[in-house]
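Ticket #474: bound-state structure for NAP.
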Amino acid sequence: MKQYKNYVNGEWKSSEKEIKIYEPATGKELGTVPAMSQEEVDYVMASAKEALPKWRALSYVERAAYLHKVADILMRDKEEIGAILSKEIAKGLKSSISEVVRTVEIIDFAAEEGLRLTGEVLEGGSFEAASKKKLAVVRREPQGLVLAISPFNYPINLAASKIAPALIAGNVVAFKPPTQGSISGILLAKAFAEAGLPDGVFNTITGRGSEIGDYIVEHKAVNFISFTGSTPVGKNIAKLAGLRPVLLELGGKDSAIVLEDADLELAAKQIVTGGYSYSGQRCTAVKRVFVMDSIADELAAIVRDKVNALKVGQPEDDADITALIDTKAADYVEGLINDATEKGAKPLNEIKRENNLISPVVFDNVTTDMRLAWEEPFGPVMPFIRVKSVEEAIKLSNASEYGLQASIFTKNYPRAFAIAEQLEVGTVHINNKTQRGTDNFPFMGVKNSGSGTQGVRYSIEAMSRLKSVVFDTE
Ligand code: NAP
Ligand code: G3H
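RESOLUTION: The complex was predicted; output attached.
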C-alpha cells in the first residue's frame, strides 16, 4: 500500500492527515493521499505566485518544450498509469490507457497551439480626426495563478485539459484532483516533476472538497478557476469567485432525438455507446431519448438487445459496465430506477444491483412526472420518452435545467440543422452520440451546464487576458 504525496514547489510533501483511497470495484485499499491543511495550501499558493514572473517571462517555445516533455513521459508510462487509474475509478483498463493517450494529445496540441498565438494591431476608428493617429498593440498575458479542479470520471484527462492551456499561456497552476482520483492526479504530477518544470510552476493540492474546497476557491492568490464537476459545486464556486473569471463545465442531461427517417441501427448503436460507456458516468452521456411514436417500438427493441449484450463486470476485464464510483452514487441511481418503476415506466432489461454494480437498463414509456426524465443519473439507466412531433421533442429537451449537448438522428441534414438551431445546448451532433471531442473543438454548456468555453485554443484564450498598449503615431 503506497503513501502518495503532493508535489509542491518542486518537492514531494506529505501532510499530517491522510485519506485512504479504496478501489470502487473491490473495496481494496489502493493507497493514501495527504489531506492538506490550510497552512499547507497557503504555502502552495505562495510558491506558485513566486514562480509566476520567471515562467511567464519564458518564450512560448520554451514553455512548449516542457509540455512536450510531459507528454512524452505520459506516453512512456501510459500502461502503468492507466492500470492504477482503472483501479482507482473502476474504469475499463483499455479506456483508462486511452485516457492517458488522449491526455498526451491534449498536452502536445496545447503546446503547439501556444506557438500559433498572435496579437494584433488596431487602428483608431472613431469619428474624431485625431483617432486616426492612434494605434493599439493588443497582446495576451496570463491570468496569473490558475486553480484547476477536476472530477472523478476523467481525473487525468480533465485535469490536463486545464493545466496544459494554463501553462502554455504563461500561468502557474495549483491542481486539486478529485479525492477518488487523487492518486491518478498525483501520477500526472509525477510527469510534470520529471519534465523538470521550474519549482512552483505546477503544484498539487489533495484533500476533500467538502473540507478545503471553499478555502482554495476563496484564496486571494488565485486569479482564475477552471472547474469541471457537478452543478451545485460549480454554482458555489461561481458565488465564491466574485469578480475573478471562471470556466465551469458542469452536469448535463443530453438528449438523443430520433426522427422517423433515421437509420435505427446506427441510432441504437450510438445511443448505447453514448449512454452506457463507463457505466454512464460521463457528463456527455446520452441521458434521455426522444423518439417518434411511429418508430419507438422498433428502436426500443434494438436498443434493448444491445444493452443486454453489454459486458457487466470488472474494470481489468474491460467490462462496459463496472461498479459505480461509490455507494452514494449507486443509491442515487437506484432511487431513479425505483421512482420510474413505481410511476409505470417499463424496464426493457433486468433490474439488478450487486453492491455498487448496477446492471444497465433502458426504461420505455417514461413520462415527464418521473425523476428520470429530468435528473442526471451518472449511471447505467436511460429513459425513452415517446413523442408525437419534433416540436414536442425540442420543447421537452429545452425544458431541462441543463444545456450541454444533444444528438439528432435523421437522414435529412437541412432539417437537422434547423432543429439544432432551436436546441438550447452548447453542441449538437448529427447522427452520432453526444461527446466532448475532438479536444480542439469548443466544448461548453449553457444554462446549468456551465459557463465559458473549453477546448485547447478556447481554454488558452480564457486563461489569458488581452492587454492593449495605445500610442499616437504622429
Ligand atoms: P463534484 O462532486 O462536483 O466534484 C468535482 C471536483 O470538485 C472534485 O475535485 C471535488 O473534490 C471538488 N469539490 C467538491 N466540493 C468542492 C468545493 N466546495 N469547492 C471546490 N471544489 C470542490 O463532481 P464529480 O462527482 O467528481 O463529477 C460528476 C459531476 O461532474 C457530474 O454532474 C457530471 O455531469 C459533471 N461533469 C461535467 C463535465 C463537463 O465537462 N461538463 C465533465 C465531467 C463531469 P472531492 O472529490 O474531494 O469532493
Ligand atoms: O464527463 C465529461 C467529459 O467531458 C466527457 O468527455 O465525451 O469525451 O467522454 P467524453
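RESOLUTION NOTES: The CA atoms of residues 83 and 93 lie 6 Å apart.
TICKET STATUS: resolved
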